[in-house]
Design brief:
Helix content is 48%, strand content 15%. The chain is an alpha/beta fold and 381 residues long. Strands 5, 6, 7, 8 and 9 form a five-stranded mixed sheet that branches. It has a four-stranded parallel sheet with strand order 3-2-1-4, with helices on both faces. Helix 11 packs parallel to helix 16, helix 13 runs antiparallel to helix 14 and helix 16 packs antiparallel against helix 17. It is globular, with a radius of gyration of 22 Å. InterPro entries: Glyco_trans_2-like, Glycosyltransf_2, Nucleotide-diphossugar_trans. It comes from Mesorhizobium marinum. Pfam families: Glycos_transf_2.
C-alpha cells in the first residue's frame, strides 16, 4: 500500500529540524511511500534544502507556495490534492517531528491486519524542561467521549488515515478561530463519522513543537470555549468542509450567534494578527476598523493622532491601532493578545527598516517605529 506523507514547513532550513524530520521519513523501514513537502513561502534556504532531498530521492516531491499561507489546513490541503491517486492511506509529518524508524511499518501492518479506516500510535511530546509526555495512549472510545473536554488527545504524527474517510468527515476547517486546534475539530468529526478506528501501542513519533518559538502552540493564542461555540454554530449553518473549500476558501468568517463584544474583539484581534503574519495588511486593516467600530473608539485621542500621523499608510495604521487597544477593549483573560500583536508589528516595522531600498525610506520606517514605541509606552499596563 502506497502511503502519502504530507509535510508543511516555513523557514526551518537553519534550525536543522526540517532536515532531521525529512531524514526520519526517508529512513523508514517501510519504503512504499511518497513525501509531499509544502514550502509555505520560505525565504531562508528552505527551498534549496527541499530541492536537494527531491533530487536525491524520487519519493520526495515539493510544492512551492506563495504568498505565505500560515495555515496548516490550507497547506496540507494542497498536499492532499496533489497526492498520487494510488495512495491507499495518508499521514502527516511536521517539521518539528521525528518519526520512529518503524512507524510506517507498524501503522500499515495494523491497518492491513484489521481493515481499519484510521490507525494511530503514540507521539512523545518533548517539553522545555527536558521531560516528556505521550499523546494517543487512550482507547478510541475514550477519546471519542472526550472531545468536549480537551482539544489535545489524538497525535498529529503517527496516525494513518484512508483518503475516503475525509469524504465522510470533511477536511480541516481553515478558520482563523481554529488555527491552534484545527486538528481537534477534524478528529472530532472523524471519530463521529462511522469510521473504524484502531490504536496501536507503539511510540511512532517525537514532537519538539513546544521548544520552537514559531510553533502555533507558542505563537497563537486561542480559547477552547470559543472554538467549541464556533464549531457548533458552523455546523448548524452548514459550512462546507470539503478539501477544496477549506484550502481555497476564506479563513475569516464568523458564523452568526450569541457572541459578546469581548468575544468578537478577541476573534477580530486574531484575524488582524493572522493577516499581519502573512503580510496582508489590507485585510488586517479591515478587521482593525471592525475592532475600532465595535468598541466606539473612532473619537479616541490616540486613534485620532495615529490616523493623522500615518494617514498615508492606512493598512499599517489600522493594524497597529487594533493591536494597541486589545487591553482596553477585552477582558483580562484575553489581554495577552495586545502584547503578542505589539511584537508582530514591531518585527514588521524592523523588517521594513532592514529591507528599505533608499535612505529616505529607511528613515521613514525608523521614525514610524520610534513613534509607535512611544505610544506603546504611554498606554496603561
Amino acid at each position: 500500500m502506497l502511503v502519502s506523507i504530507h509535510l508543511t514547513t516555513f523557514c526551518q532550513a537553519a534550525s536543522g529540524w526540517l532536515e532531521r524530520a525529512i531524514a526520519s521519513v526517508l529512513e523508514q523501514t517501510y519504503a512504499d511511500f511518497e513525501l509531499i513537502c509544502y514550502d509555505d513561502g520560505s525565504y531562508d534556504g528552505t527551498a534549496q534544502l527541499l530541492a536537494r532531498f527531491a533530487s536525491e530521492d524520487r519519493r520526495v516531491r515539493v510544492i512551492t507556495g506563495s504568498p505565505n499561507l500560515n495555515s496548516v489546513a490550507k497547506s496540507l490541503g494542497r498536499c492532499f490534492l496533489a497526492r498520487s491517486p494510488e495512495a491507499g492511506a495518508i499521514t502527516w509529518m511536521f517539521d518539528d517531528n521525528i518519526l520512529a524508524p518503524d512507524a510506517l511499518q507498524t501503522l500499515v501492518s495494523a491497518m492491513e491486519r484489521t481493515g481499519a479506516d484510521v490507525v494511530y500510535g503514540q507521539t512523545r511530546i518533548m517539553t522545555v524542561d527536558g521531560s516528556s509526555w505521550l499523546i494517543g495512549t487512550r482507547e478510541p472510545e475514550v477519546i471519542g467521549a472526550s472531545f468536549q473536554a480537551t482539544s489535545a488527545d489524538v497525535p498529529n504524527a503517527g496516525i494513518l488515515i484512508r483518503p475516503e474517510v475525509f469524504e465522510r468527515s470533511g477536511w480541516y476547517d481553515s478558520s482563523i478561530i481554529l488555527r491552534r486546534s484545527c486538528d481537534w475539530d477534524l478528529f472530532r468529526r472523524i471519530w463521529s463519522s462511522g469510521s473504524t478506528i484502531v490504536k496501536v501501542d507503539h511510540v511512532c513519533a517525537t514532537e519538539f513543537g513546544e521548544l520552537s518559538p514559531s510553533s502555533l502552540r507558542n505563537s497563537f493564542d486561542t480559547s477552547f470555549e470559543l472554538m467549541k461555540r464556533y464549531v457548533r454554530l458552523r455546523d448548524e449553518i452548514g459550512f462546507r468542509l470539503d478539501v477544496a473549500s477549506a484550502t481555497y476558501g476564506p479563513a475569516d468568517v464568523v458564523p452568526e450567534g450569541p457572541w459578546s463584544k469581548d468575544e468578537l474583539s478577541y476573534i477580530y484581534h486574531g484575524f488582524v494578527r493572522y493577516f499581519v503574519s502573512v503580510g496582508n495588511l489590507g485585510k488586517a486593516a479591515e478587521w482593525g476598523n471592525e475592532i475600532i467600530s465595535l468598541n466606539g473608539l473612532d473619537d479616541d485621542l490616540v486613534v485620532k493622532n495615529l490616523r493623522r500621523k500615518f494617514g498615508d499608510q492606512p493598512e499599517i495604521l489600522e493594524a497597529v491601532v487594533s493591536g494597541l487597544f486589545a487591553r482596553r477593549v477585552a477582558d483580562p483573560a484575553v489581554s495577552i493578545v495586545r502584547y503578542s500583536f505589539k511584537r508582530e508589528v514591531a518585527e514588521y516595522l524592523q523588517r521594513r527598516i532592514r529591507t528599505a531600498k533608499s535612505q529616505a525610506a529607511r528613515v521613514y520606517w525608523k521614525v514610524a517605529f520610534h513613534v509607535l514605541r512611544r505610544v506603546w509606552r504611554s498606554l496603561p499596563r
